[in-house]
Amino acid sequence: MKILLVGGGSGGPVAPLLAVAEEIKKQHNSAKFLLVGTARGPEKIFAEKENINFVSIPAGKLRRYFSFANFFSPLLIFLGFIKSIVILRSFRPDCVFGTGSYVQVPLVWAAWLLKIPVVLHQQDLLPSLVNSLCQFAAKKITVSFESSQRDFASSLGLFYKKNASKIILTGDPFRQHLKEVNREEAQKFFKLKSDLPTLLVLGGGTGAAWLNNLILDSLPQLSKTVQILHSTGVGKFSKHKFKNYYPYEFISDMGKAYSVADIVLCRAGLSTITELSNLSKVSIIVPMPDSHQEVNAFFLHQHGAAIIAEQEKLDKEILISIIRRLIFEPEVQLALKKNISALMPKNAAEKIAEVILKIING
Question: Do the domains at 2-174+346-361 and 177-341 have one common CATH topology?
């Protein structure tokens, strides 16, 4: 059994791919996987850690705003399409599984041409442009939220129509091994103090420059309240030396990082939200302005599942005030943990693995 996973550009689209691969491996230990992603994203690091072969293809990012880079996207997509055909003919997968990253467009189109079954997963509340462009090629589309079942169709062009049997509500996959970590051992691993609360700062696999700068500006005061475990992003390592500050360019073992975190400061990517939900973490969410993340963050706000802070209104004084409030008001922490834990289904990876295996075996 061979399954080709496609996604990347950031860590968000890769996490559900690995979660589903982990679940399939439990049922079919001999299953082989190949992860196809971008050359510059962090997906190669993820693949190597999971002992999954990796290969990159050219891919043009489909921006919904004006950018000179858009003029080169069609050429990159075409080059990616040609390389995808070579990869598919060489690897000969029984199924292709994609999670909405722009790198999937040429590969899914090539898989459709070669009549290789495709399964897509829609993570966010808002349908991605990539999945909308690829939906015609998919045998099944799994979605994280009930409302997303109305966002996709069964075919293309004049025959565009809804097909409820093609769209399956599963929730967003979670890597179960992230739970299987001892907190004390993780504290020793990061050389953290056991008697001081830990703030885990995540900007995503590629890092968020704005969040990084906010933390650096806040360090003199913030480090008196908490110890900071900071994932800066690849190529954005912080050389600042400060008491109670522990920067890492890339944290390869997120299970350890989550286990020591009392509070998580992060963006509103759906993979991160899924992990926070499954691990019942207290979080401060700063959605990326003018993006789908604002919809994700509003969903969290509606359910009282996280502290939501707008980037335009957040500064170091407000951040420190929020963190101190969370530390000294345990009832607020308990409410946030309870609400975020109830937010996401806990067996999504198992459901999606079942969908893929049925297609392969069918």
Answer: yes
